[in-house]
Amino acid sequence: MKLRKVTAASAAVFALALTATACGGDDGNDSNGSGSGDDKKITIGIKFDQPGLGQKTPQGYEGFDVDVATYVAKKLGYSEDQIEWKESKSADRETMLQRGDVDFIAATYSITPERQEKVDFAGPYLLAHQDVLIRADDNKIKSPEDLNSAKLCSVTGSTSAQNVKEKLAPKAQLQPYPTYSACLPGLQNGAVDALTTDDSILAGYAAQSQFKGKFKLGGFKLTNENYGIGVKKGSDLKDKINKALEEMVADKSWDKAVKDNFGPANYKNEPAPKIGDIKS
C-alpha cells in the first residue's frame, strides 16, 4: 500500500516536471541577441583603432560610431553593459555579418552597390567625404590640384592616395606608411605634406589631445561616403535600426555625438542624412 502511494506521488511530480519543461524550455534567446533574462546581450562590430569613430581604450570604447551603436542598442532594449563589442576590420565585415558573428556593424561602413549584394544597410547615419589633412599653418595646399607638388601619405592597403594621384594630382609624390596613425608624426614634422582618407576619420585623428590645433582639413569633399549600419541580409533589425536613427536625430543626440567626437578638429560635418538618401 505504501509502495502505491509513493509511486503515485512520483508520477505526479514527474508530470509537473514535464509541464514545466514544455512551458519554460525556450529561454527566449535567438541569433539576433534578442533574448530575455540575465544573459541578454547584443553583439556589435566596430573599429578598435579609429580615434573619434571607434577606438578601444583602457577606459572602454569610444567614438562617434560607438555612440551611435550604443544609442541604437538602447532603443532595441539593451543597456550598455549588455553590449559585446567585436573588432570589425574592413576586410572582415561582410563575412562577420553573414556568419552571424555580430548582430550589426557600425564601423565607417560606406554603403556601396557591391556591399549591398551581400548585406543590408540601415541608414545612412553620416555623410562623409574623402578629404586631406594638412598642417594648420600650411597655406600652400588650397585645392586638390595643389597636391601635384606635395608629398602625400599613402597607406598600405588604402586606395585613397592612389585615387588622388590618378584622378586629381598625377604629380603627387606618394610616400608609403603602414597606417594612418603612422602618417601623423610625418605630417607634423614635414616628412609628408598631406594625408588623405574620409574627412570623419581625419577629424578623429586631428581631435586627439596630442594633435589639437596642429592640423586642419582641406575641405575638398573629393567623394561621398554614406556610412550605414550593416546587418545580415534579410534581417528584421534593419527597420528597427532605421527607426532608432531617426529618433537619435530628432532628440539631438546625433548632434551631441558629432560635437563630442569631432569638435576639437573643427569638423564641418554635413547635416544628418535622411534614411535611405544615399549620395552618389
Overview of the molecule:
- The protein is an alpha/beta fold and 280 residues long.
- It has helices spanning 2-24, 64-75, 93-99, 113-116, 160-167, 180-189, 199-206, 237-250, 253-262, and strands at residues 42-46, 49-50, 54-57, 60-62, 83-87, 104-105, 119-128, 130-135, 151-155, 173-177, 194-198, 215-217, 225-232.
- Strand 9 (151-155), helix 5 and strand 10 (173-177) form a beta-alpha-beta unit.
- The longest helix is centred in the N-terminal third of the chain and has 23 residues, at 2-24.
- It starts with a helix and ends in an 18-residue tail after the last helix.
- Percent of residues in helices: 25-40%
Average of the residue pLDDT scores: 88
Element order, helices and strands? HEEEEHEHEHEEEHEHEHEEHH
What overall form do the CA principal axes indicate? globular
Please indicate the percent range of residues in DSSP E strands (runs of 2 or more): 15-25%
SS-derived structural category: alpha/beta
Query: Within the largest sheet, what's the order of strands?
Result: 10-9-11-8-12
Number of strands: 13
Radius of gyration: 25 Å
Main sheet attributes: strand count, strand direction, barrel closure: 5 strands, mixed
Oligomer: single chain
Residue stretches low in confidence (pLDDT < 50, at least 5 long) are 1-37
Distance separating the two termini: 85 Å
Number of alpha- plus pi-helical segments: 9
